[in-house]
Amino acid sequence: MTPLHGLLDTEAIRKDFPILDRMVHDGKKIVYLDNAATSQKPRQVLDALNAYYEQHNANVHRGVHVLAEEATALYEGARDKVAAFINAPSRDEVIFTKNASESLNLVANMLGWADEPYRVDRETEIVITEMEHHSNIVPWQLLSQRTGAKLKWFGLTDDGRLDLSDIDQVITEKTKIVSFTLVSNIMGTINPVDAIVRRAQDVGALVLIDASQAAPHMPLDVQALGADFVAFTGHKMCGPTGIGVLWGRQELLEDLPPFLGGGEMIETVSMHSSTYAPAPHKFEAGTPPIAQAVGLGAAVDYLTAIGMDKIEAHEHAITEYAVKRLLEVPDLRIIGPTTAEDRGAAISFVLGDIHPHDVGQVLDEQGIAVRVGHHCARPVCLRYGIPATTRASFYLYSTPAEVDALVEGLEHVRNFFG
Amino acid sequence: MKLDSMYQEVILDHYKHPHGRGLRDGDAEVHHVNPTCGDEITLRVKLDGSKIVDVSYEGQGCSISQASASVMNELVVGRELDEAMKVQEVFLELMQSKGKLEPDDAMEEVLEDAVAFAGVSKYPARVKCALLSWMAWKDATAQALSERESA
Lengths: 418, 151
Ligand SMILES: Cc1ncc(COP(=O)(O)O)c(C=O)c1O
Description:
A: alpha/beta; 7-stranded mixed β-sheet; 14 helices; 17 strands; 17% strand; B: alpha+beta; 3-stranded antiparallel β-sheet; 18% strand; binds pyridoxal-5'-phosphate
């Protein structure tokens, strides 16, 4: 095998992830290839969570005591870290949520309750794509049902890319919001942001980018993207579960109405009415996920110290190798781009007529963790006429040897059901 | 190897050579899905009084769900409804046993080939696959009966 270029020092990195040493099924070392579902967490993040609870735990924004001040500083410090990580012009544009799904739902609800010029109603249209995660489909179906707005979407090409040939018919003067994923969680496709943002801006539509599968894997610059909102989730980027992010442009966050009401998000409250705190607090009702935000801050520090450009290069090399090796497996068909160009490290495939469930089970027996099913992107399976896929997804700690283990594992699957 | 406890020969046989597959005439039809993995089944039942004349089905899914549909067809077609319901109950009990139930002779007598699914009950993610067709059959039967009542 020729050595791959741009690989990280995975031997060193893997020492930070205790779980990667886990043995399963009588002494087989785990090969964790389900990173698109959730990433593993480095010791640095686990330590930050522990230190927070052991040394600083208090509620935020309301106490005058030492612990309350420390907890607030840590929570708000995490916001600064995330803002820097995505190159946000202002820290006040970073809203903490519980996950990407909540971030996406939050935008849908802001727009549903907004006044002109943002209001989504029966005269207007919403645009998504056929490769969205269910979390970026269902909130728009709900909004469409509640407001009467028409829901439209971009279809897919046979090779797993967005079909933008009818972009001028899909995004029109009636479009209020275009919401799409930067990287597909099922096919790995990296979508052409510029073309979509340009068209949306031409017609005055807002743009929401679902960066759940991008933020963990590549440098993310919300200003360069040109979108109005960007959503992602902490647990896929080395952070804990229970923390997500919504970035939004300041003017919009000032204009748009809150969704959830509660403590933290108000300025004054009387029995008749209330006034709201400025963003981001306006959108963070109730006690936030404090420890989880602190954990995400630690994750951001961890990823930044390694370098998002280096992580991207590593994953590109692994993806190139994995695609090549997988295509050598007889009867294997990749669902999605069949080169590493403009694709991330989530690779879905079908193996002859062996059902993905069975593929995943036999791989699991060998200690190889993959995801099987429709990956919360059922329309993609329908589009390609398959019931489900097997998906292997890689991250900064993935190695070429793990790709080899997968390929050998698939050989075993073929023998078992052959 | 542990895998063999799940993928018994009997199961793989039914998977490769399914019994009664294909949709035929029926009194009621249901479509059931397993939302976590995309397994699907469309199933029809045909009753004659209290006797099950036919259970026909079409679907896509893993070896476990497909084999289970085949075994179910074999076990219930030609039976009296109340008898078949009993078989279903015993199968459900086995599948919910988390691998802790060692099928005895009495159970084996009732379940016949379906006893091979005992190993599947150890795998929580797969129990739903094994139950999909049975749940569809139960649902279709209930519909056929209630339609008959209202007719
Ligand atoms: C592209 C994409 N969007 C949204 C989500 C939803 O993330 P969460 O479940 O953390 O809300 C996921 C995660 O599965 C995803 O891959």
